[in-house]
Amino acid sequence: MAAPMNSAWERLRHGHTLPILTILAALAIVWYLGAIWLNSQRVIDGYEADDELKNKWTTGDLIRDTLSMERPVLPAPDQVVVELDHSVLEVAPTSNRSLLYHAWVTLSAALVGFALGSLLGIALAIAIVHVATLERALLPWVIASQTIPILAIAPMIIVVLGSIGLVGLLPKAFISAYLCFFPVTIGMVKGLTSPEPLQLDLIRTYSASRGQIFRKLRWPASFPFLFPSLKIAVALAVVGAIVGELPTGAAAGLGARLLAGSYYGQTVQIWSALVLASLLAALSVGAVGWVERLTLRHTGGEG
Amino acid sequence: MTSRARDIVLTATLVAGLAAPFLPAGSAVAWRPLDLGLWLAALAAGAVAAFVDRGDESAAILALAGTVLGAVALYRVLDSGARGAAALGLWLGAVVLAVLAWRAMNLFALIGRNRGGAALNLAAPILLGVWTIYLWQLVVVGLEIPRVLLPPPSDIAAAMVASARDLALDFIQTFVRAMIPGYVIGCGAGFIVGVLVDRSPFLQRGLLPLGNLVSALPIVAVAPIMVMWFGFDWPSKAAVVVIMTFFPMLVSTIAGLAALPRMELDLMRTYAASYAQTLWLARFQAAMPFIFNALKINSTLALIGAIVAEFFGTPVVGMGFRISTEVGRMNIAMVWATIVVAAVAGSASYGALALVERSVTFWHPSLRKVAG
Question: Considering only residues 141 to 200 of chain A, which have any Cβ-Cβ distance to chain B shorter than 8 Å?
Answer without folding.
Answer: 141, 144, 146-149, 151-153, 155-156, 159-160, 163-164
